[in-house]
Amino acid sequence: MSLQAKLDAFDKNSRAAFDELLEWLHRDREALIHAARGRLVEGHYRYGDRLMYEYDQEQLQAEACQEIADAINYLHLRVQRQRPQLLRGDVRDGEQRVDGERPAGPAA
To answer: Which residue range(s) make up the domain with 35?
Structure first.
């Protein structure tokens, strides 16, 4: 896929991806906090006290910005792949949760 095709897809889906990210943060708050805690434990065993504990406020902000930007990039692909299903009515937006489970009832 060419860079221009990637940028076109991003431009088409990035705002929906951003909105989905915000909804996801609110909808699955506790599961995401639990996952973040797990990542902290994983990072401790992989990296010890290096990296983020050495960063100043500006570096922490820059790293957080990069991680959020990456989340939007991942989610724009999800939105792009879901769009045909959403248009057909096969999948309701927001059905997939952070833990990979599908809610029993309407989207949580």
So the answer is: 3-88
Give backbone dihedrals phi and psi of 61, rounded to 5 degrees, phi first. Answer: -65, -45
Residue 108 in any domain: the answer is no
> Kind and range of the H or E element at 40?
helix 29-47
- Residue length of the chain: 108
Number of H helices, E strands in the chain: 3, 0
- Give the span between the Cα atoms of 76 and 100, in whole angstroms: 18
Asked if residue 66 is part of any domain, the answer here is yes
Total tally of structural domains belonging to the chain: 1
In-domain check, residue 18: yes
The least confident of 10-14, 17-21, 44-48 is: 44-48
Q: What's the DSSP call for residue 102?
A: P
What is the tens place of the pLDDT at every residue in 74-108? 999 988 888 666 555 554 544 544 444 444 443 43
Query: For residue 42, what pLDDT band results from cuts at 50, 70 and 90?
Result: very high
Strands (E) located in the chain: none
